[in-house]
Specification:
- By secondary structure, the chain is mainly α.
- 64% of the residues lie in helices and 6% in strands.
- The protein is built from three helices and two strands, in the order ααββα.
- The chain has a two-stranded antiparallel ribbon.
- Strand 1 and strand 2 form a beta hairpin.
- It is elongated.
Length: 69
């Protein structure tokens, strides 16, 4: 069972990251600018994706090792 704190963090992350991926913010990043030779939009999307993965990794339920795989 997922703890209440974990559910609250996941709900907040869903809203926050969903807000980062809406059209107005994507158009801000969609400029003809290169960051280290990579388009700014690709850098923005990869950064948001990496942050989502990091948050999910940090909030994941921990197994105590009592259960069989």
């Amino acid at each position: 069972m997922i703890a209440v704190k974990t559910r609250e963090i996941l709900a907040a992350a869903f809203v926050f990251f969903g807000g980062l991926l809406v059209w107005p913010l994507l158009t801000i990043a969609n400029r003809p600018v290169l960051v280290a030779g990579v388009p700014a939009l690709a850098v923005y999307l990869f950064t948001v994706w990496a942050a989502i993965v990091l948050v999910l990794f940090l909030v994941r339920p921990r197994s105590r090792g009592d259960e069989a795989p």
